[in-house]
Write a structure and sequence with these properties.
By secondary structure, the protein is an alpha+beta fold. 38% of the residues lie in helices and 10% in strands. The protein has one domain. Strand 1 (19-23) and strand 2 form a beta hairpin. Helix 3 (85-96) packs antiparallel against helix 6. It is globular.
């Protein structure tokens, strides 16, 4: 679905009422808005706290995936198929700008990815959910406007930069922001903000 439709579902989601956002034959992505927060997130606004769940039907496991799952998936894809880099960047930019992930991913169907962590359809929908999670449910003050630029900047950096994974993961685990070259034209707080920015403006 397009981002505006997902956003509406999330904003109107009642407490403690899990909703399936997408499923294929092997995996399910769902969201929930818990009425009681854990101690770790006690400072968050309970009305804006969104949880994303991934269920693997073949194993019966259901868990909350984190951003590293997405980043490692993208890292594996671009290193297995370097020729897919531009199409990967365009796909996830299209998702960031509001396109339906299942439509955006069509440009990637010509590539054979065998090392990815998830099926392609799960990866693109998960990316959209993480973008929404930060945009709507982000619990702390952000330097970015929109707030989802933090994860989108890292998505771009993971795909485009020729760093060893240790270097990139180290940056995230130490709470460093993505390189400004991947966020500035989309960031209303930056002097180089461009309201007419298009996909791939940073390459």
């Amino acid at each position: 679905m397009k981002y505006k439709d997902l956003e509406k579902i999330i904003i109107e989601l009642p407490f403690d009422t899990p909703v399936v956002i997408y499923r294929n034959t092997t995996q399910i992505l769902s969201i929930n808005r818990p009425s009681i927060l854990s101690k770790r997130f006690s400072t968050y606004n309970v009305s804006k706290n969104i949880q994303v769940f991934l269920e693997i039907l073949t194993t019966g496991k259901k868990f909350k995936p984190n951003h590293f799952r997405l980043f490692l998936d993208l890292y594996n894809r671009v290193h297995e198929c370097p020729q897919a880099k531009k199409d990967l960047l365009k796909t996830f930019d299209d998702i960031f700008y509001g396109e339906d992930p299942l439509i955006a991913m069509n440009q990637l169907q010509k590539y054979k990815f065998t090392l990815a962590l998830n099926p392609l359809d799960i990866t693109v929908v998960l990316a959209q959910l993480f973008i929404a999670e930060q945009a709507i449910g982000f619990g702390k003050k952000s330097k970015y406007d929109p707030r989802s630029l933090y994860i989108q900047g890292w998505i771009r950096q993971f795909i485009n930069d020729d760093f060893e994974i240790d270097q990139v993961v180290s940056g995230i685990t130490n709470s460093r922001p993505p390189l400004v070259k991947y966020t500035k034209q989309d960031d209303k707080n930056h002097k180089e903000y461009n309201p007419n920015a298009q996909p791939l403006w940073y390459i």
